[in-house]
Amino acid sequence: MQEKHYTHLIWDFNGTILDDVDACIKSANMLLAAYDLPMLPSRAEYKRYFGFPIIDYYRRLGFDFDRLSYEKLAPEWVGYYMENVKDAPLCAGVTDAFDRAKRAGLSQWVLSATEQDMLTRQLGGLGIRDRFDGILGMDTIHAHSKEAIGVAWRASHPNATALMLGDTDHDAAVAKAMGIDCILLTTGHQARDVLEKAPCLAVVDSATEALERVLV
């Protein structure tokens, strides 16, 4: 991998910092059960369905938005999720990666499709809010795309040499739109074979491994 002196580390949140896959599966199944739809049988099946935009993920699960409002469904899922995510841990190696990036002098940010206030509360509850120089979340709970937020950040930091850590092909697409590098982690919401098709520097199994590849 080509050596580069990064100045900024942009973290995705769900599945990259927070190990919330089980919470998301449980929440999806509660929502599916409420509408008499078939439930997800396994993590592998969940990772096959999940993707952005979230409305298309819901369609793959079986929801018909000609008959049901997405704007009604999204807050129902959030209610289930906020209950189920309470005990979700940090992804393995994240704390060490925070420390390593700090020692390397990187400015650390979070860029997430989670709604801004919800994201800030979750980071505070996990005791890691002060790890970040900035938090970039969505202005609604509907999680359409974080690309515009990322591109705006990039425009305001034209001299930054940034690396994104994420867990989905959407993170790779956002990084590409921002004109920055990306490493994808298998800790989250999509399977390795999906990630390996995305435009990224590498697919690795932890944030620690990602930083070992790029920091000297």
Structure in words:
The protein is an alpha/beta fold. It has two domains: 137 residues, HAD superfamily/HAD-like (Rossmann fold, 3-Layer(aba) Sandwich), CATH 3.40.50.1000; 67 residues. The chain is built from ten helices and six strands. Strands 3-2-1-4-5-6 form a six-stranded parallel sheet. The protein is globular.
Proportion in helices: 40-55%
| Element pattern in H and E | EHHHHHEHEHEHEHEH
Q: What does the main sheet amount to?
A: 6 strands, parallel
How big is the Rg? Answer: 17 Å
Strand order of the biggest β-sheet: 3-2-1-4-5-6
| Global outline | globular
CATH H-level name of the largest domain... which superfamily?
HAD superfamily/HAD-like
Helix count from the secondary structure assignment: 10
User: What top-tier CATH class of the largest domain fits best?
Assistant: Alpha Beta
Kindly state the mean pLDDT as a whole number? 93
How far apart the termini lie comes to 12 Å
Q: Quaternary state, please? A: single chain
Structural class estimated from helices and strands? alpha/beta
Overall strand count: 6
Number of domains: 2
Q: What is the name of the CATH architecture of the largest domain?
A: 3-Layer(aba) Sandwich
Share in β-strands: 5-15%
Unreliable stretches: none
Q: Output the CATH topology of the largest domain.
A: Rossmann fold
